[in-house]
Each structure stands twice: as structure tokens, then as C-alpha cells.
């Protein structure tokens, strides 16, 4: 059975009963099940339950919720079982990555740090379920700010967008339960820990706190190359991250999800794609013979983690275009396609064109229409506000050998609620709710300033977050074109949750 079929039951009411039958097993599996860590009997006899020796306790320093400097452990001693002081047996077991490691090197087991017992994965989630709302304990929490460290506004705003999507909280709580790396080396663990701290430490009404994402920063830098060419010989543009150079907030989101994807096992990867990735298939009708064409399920188009909506689209005879117009014409319609119909009539027509000495490319172009075959739980929409400046010859303008990128400041009013039902096969309602917006002020993607507008955990109010400053209890109008310190920001990245 394809793994995607098994994951669709996590969102259905009958998932507990349906999954065992589909998988042919008696137990009721969930996406977080792991093999039990059995300790041999002779190991139990040799390592009876007793107090932790003083010399071991001295190296078991409590983990700070913010500052990475507090994580000091002995690199020479084996981590001990919580509360027992006994060394873990050195037998090899599979981790969530599928690689055999020694039990003594396991840093996280079932969502908690082995040495300290600290909860790393977001807690309170339902095993095997990705819910669409925050926990009841979160609904009284206020949004929090991030410490401003150098040029970090682009990362702060991007993370605020992810943190305020409840589906992402439940997704991270269910995956990657075991790990053999430290938080400052594993991007997934660091992101899970950030979610857990953010909502666990959330202030009550009228109270906000400021936290740090230093562990996540360190983990990301450990997993990206320090030179312009990586180990595979591919070029990349992430070198500036090592030098605290401001960059694109969307690039940060995309790379973060890509690193989580690359570290997951087969089940985690399938779940992540179902949460974030849209799939679609194309249909088109031949303009010559009228024959309808439908792409097969094997040729589904994967849209990646976002839908891109350009702002400089031609309006034609219209004076303005709505946000849904832009989605329709750029995401779900493709005009001027050189698709070729294989009907007998069209084959004969093409043969006649070629025999007459004309080029086959002179045949009429087709228009494709796309239908959603997999609707993501989290829909990320990117407004393409940055484009290369072109000269009169149509080529990009250059400055110091690099293409000049200009910002498009055109106003676009977008909806708080999207209904994409018209693009599904059954045309039933497919509703999405806006949860967060990353906005930018400035002329270049790698300069200026970023802020975030987020829906509070109560699901009603909005807040504007400018690094460590939180302006709470705002109405929904602030998400359109948010303002902070008297400056207006243009919306750039939008996070929608499926209702």
C-alpha cells in the first residue's frame, strides 16, 4: 500500500480502526511508534537502581530554556538513565533516521532529552493525529518576541509565521521522537524545542516574553556548507548565513523545511509532504479537434512548499486584479503551452504543416487547467515581490557582475479566507484560514526590515511582532498592510491553514 494512502487516515475520524486493516497488522500503529528499548536481564542485574554517583551528578547540568551555554555535559561519560545513574547498554538499535546507533549515544528518546528528562518535542499532542487548533492551555497564551541578535529580523519574522500555525505544532510533536544528535546539531530537534519553549513559556493575558532561537541557528549552520560549493559540487547562496548577513525570509522558510525533510525517515517525510505539499494534475482541450486530455496520476505536478503569485501580471482590459485572479491565472491556468494532441485528425494536420515546409511550432498553442489532487494542510503563498530588472533588450540589468533585483511595491488585497473548491475534482468547498503574514519594508530582499502579523492562539485576535516588540489584540485588518513604528510594510509570505 502506498505510504501516502496510510497517512490520509490520520485526518479521518476512523483512522484508529482503518489503519490496522490497511496495513494488515493487529495493533493500531501511529506515526510516532518506535520499537521498545529492551534492556538485557544481565544488564539489569549489573546496573541495579541506585542513586546517581556524585561525580556523575556533577556533569549532569540542568538545561536552560534559552541560553545554549547552559548545556554542558561530559563528553567522556555515557549518558545515564533518568533518575537511575545506570549507563545505557551498548547494544545497537535503529533511530528515527533508520541508522543503527549505540544506545549510550541516544540524546532524545520518545520526545524527551535522555540526560535531563526535558521535553523536546511539542507536548500535549494526540499520537498519530495532526489537529487543526492549538491546545486549550495555549489559548490564553500571548505571542512572544524574539531577541534581536545582529541582522536577525528576517529569521525572526519567518519563524513567527511557522510558530502560529497550529497544524505545524501537532506535526512536529508527532515526528522524529528519537535522535542521537544534540539539539545544536539536529535542525528538527531544535525546531521542535523552539515550538515547545515558545508555547510552554507563553505569557498570560497582558504578559509577553522574549526568547531565543540560538540553538536552531547553530543547528542550521551545522547543516549548510561554509563554501559556495557544497560536497556535491552544487552552487548555493547560503554562505552569508555563516556571517550573519541578512537574507530572504522565504528562503529561510524553504531551507528550514528542506532540512527537516532531509533528516526524516520514510514516515516523517510522507507526513511532512502531506502537511505542506500541494499536488495537481493538468487537463486541456485541443483547440483543433476538441479532444479532451487528462494527465495521469503518475505525472502529478508537485508544487513544493509554496504557491508563487506574481504581482506584475498583465491586467489586459481590467483595471485591477483580485488575489484570486492572480492565483487562477498563475497557479491553476497555463496559457501558451506547446502540448500536442495525438488524435488522428491532429496527427494528419501536423503532417500537412511539416510537408508544406512550415515549422511545427507554428501550430496553435494550448491552455492547460490544473486540478488539485492533494490539498496541503498548510498552504504557504509567496507574493513574488522581487524580480530582476530588465533592460530594453530584455536581458537582466547587471551591477558589479550581478543581476539587479528590484522590489515590486504594488498593493495587493488578499483574502483572510480562501476557498479553492473550484479547483478540486468534486468542486466541494476547500477552505483555508489566514494564520500569519511575513511582511517587508525596503527596496531589496536582503535589506530593509521584516516583521510578522500572526493570529493569536485564541483564534480571534491578531498581533504584530517586530523582533522583541509585540503589539497584541489587533483586528484582522492589520494583516493586509501591517504598520510598525509608523512604517507600512508590504505582505510577502502568507500562511494559511486548511479548515
- In angstroms, what is the radius of gyration? 26 Å
E-strand count: 25
Shape summary:
globular
Main sheet? 8 strands, mixed
Task: Tell me the β content.
Answer: 15-25%
The helix-and-strand class reads: alpha+beta
Percent in helix: 10-25%
Q: If you average the pLDDT, what whole number results? A: 75
Cα end-to-end separation = 28 Å
Number of helices: 12
Number of domains: 2
Low-pLDDT windows of residues: 1-98
Protein name: Cysteine proteinase
Pfam families: UCH
InterPro entries: Papain-like_cys_pep_sf, Peptidase_C19, Peptidase_C19_UCH, USP, USP_CS
GO molecular function: cysteine-type deubiquitinase activity
What would you say about this model in short?
The protein has twelve helices and 25 strands. The chain has about 500 residues and is of the alpha+beta class. Mean pLDDT is about 75; it is low at about 1-100.
Amino acid at each position: 500500500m502506498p505510504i501516502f494512502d496510510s497517512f490520509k487516515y490520520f485526518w479521518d475520524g476512523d483512522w484508529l480502526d482503518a489503519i490496522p486493516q490497511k496495513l494488515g497488522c493487529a495493533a493500531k500503529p501511529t506515526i510516532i511508534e518506535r520499537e521498545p528499548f529492551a534492556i538485557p536481564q544481565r544488564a539489569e542485574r549489573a546496573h541495579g537502581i541506585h542513586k546517581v554517583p556524585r561525580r556523575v551528578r556533577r556533569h549532569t547540568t540542568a538545561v536552560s530554556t534559552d541560553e545554549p551555554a547552559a548545556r554542558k555535559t561530559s563528553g567522556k561519560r555515557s549518558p545515564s538513565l533518568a533518575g537511575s545513574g545506570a549507563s545505557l547498554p551498548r547494544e545497537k538499535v535503529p533511530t528515527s533516521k533508520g541508522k543503527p546507533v549505540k544506545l549510550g549515544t541516544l540524546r532524545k528518546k520518545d520526545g524527551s532529552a535522555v540526560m535531563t528528562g526535558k521535553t523536546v518535542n511539542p507536548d500535549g499532542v494526540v499520537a498519530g493525529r495532526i489537529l487543526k487548533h492549538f491546545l486549550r492551555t495555549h489559548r490564553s497564551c500571548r505571542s512572544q518576541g524574539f531577541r534581536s541578535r545582529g541582522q536577525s529580523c528576517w529569521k525572526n519574522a519567518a519563524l513567527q509565521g511557522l510558530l502560529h500555525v497550529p497544524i505545524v505544532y501537532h506535526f512536529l510533536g508527532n515526528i522524529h521522537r528519537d535522535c542521537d544528535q544534540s539539539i545544536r546539531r539536529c535542525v528538527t530537534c531544535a525546531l521542535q524545542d523552539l515550538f515547545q519553549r515558545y508555547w510552554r513559556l507563553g505569557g498570560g493575558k497582558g504578559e509577553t516574553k522574549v526568547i531565543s532561537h540560538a540553538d536552531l541557528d547553530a543547528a542550521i549552520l551545522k547543516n549548510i556548507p561554509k563554501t559556495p560549493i557544497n560536497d556535491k559540487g552544487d552552487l548555493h547562496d547560503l554562505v552569508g548565513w555563516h556571517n550573519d548577513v541578512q537574507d530572504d525570509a522565504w528562503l529561510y522558510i524553504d531551507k528550514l523545511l528542506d532540512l527537516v525533510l532531509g533528516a526524516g525517515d520514510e514516515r516523517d517525510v510522507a507526513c511532512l509532504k502531506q502537511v505542506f505539499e500541494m499536488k495537481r494534475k493538468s487537463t486541456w482541450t485541443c483547440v483543433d479537434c476538441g479532444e479532451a486530455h487528462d494527465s495521469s496520476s503518475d505525472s502529478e505536478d508537485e508544487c513544493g512548499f509554496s504557491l508563487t503569485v506574481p504581482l506584475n501580471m498583465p491586467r489586459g482590459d481590467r483595471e485591477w486584479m483580485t488575489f484570486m485572479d492572480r492565483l487562477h491565472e498563475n497557479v491553476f491556468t497555463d496559457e501558451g503551452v506547446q502540448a500536442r494532441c495525438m488524435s488522428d485528425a491532429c496527427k494528419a494536420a501536423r503532417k500537412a504543416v511539416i510537408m508544406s515546409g512550415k515549422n511545427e511550432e507554428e501550430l496553435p498553442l494550448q491552455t492547460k487547467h490544473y486540478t488539485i489532487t492533494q490539498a496541503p494542510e498548510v498552504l504557504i503563498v509567496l507574493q513574488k515581490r522581487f524580480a530582476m530588472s530588465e533592460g530594453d533588450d530584455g536581458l537582466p540589468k547587471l551591477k558589479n557582475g550581478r543581476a539587479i533585483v528590484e522590489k515590486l511595491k504594488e498593493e495587493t488585497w488578499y483574502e483572510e479566507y480562501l476557498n479553492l473548491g473550484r479547483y478540486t475534482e468534486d468542486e466541494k468547498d476547500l477552505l483555508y484560514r489566514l494564520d500569519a503574514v511575513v511582511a517587508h519594508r525596503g527596496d531589496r530582499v536582503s535589506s530593509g526590515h521584516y516583521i510578522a502579523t500572526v493570529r493569536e492562539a485564541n483564534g480571534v485576535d491578531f498581533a504584530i511582532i517586530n523582533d522583541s516588540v509585540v503589539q497584541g489584540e489587533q483586528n484582522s485588518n492589520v494583516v493586509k498592510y501591517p504598520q510598525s513604528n509608523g512604517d507600512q510594510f508590504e505582505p510577502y509570505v502568507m500562511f494559511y491553514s486548511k479548515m
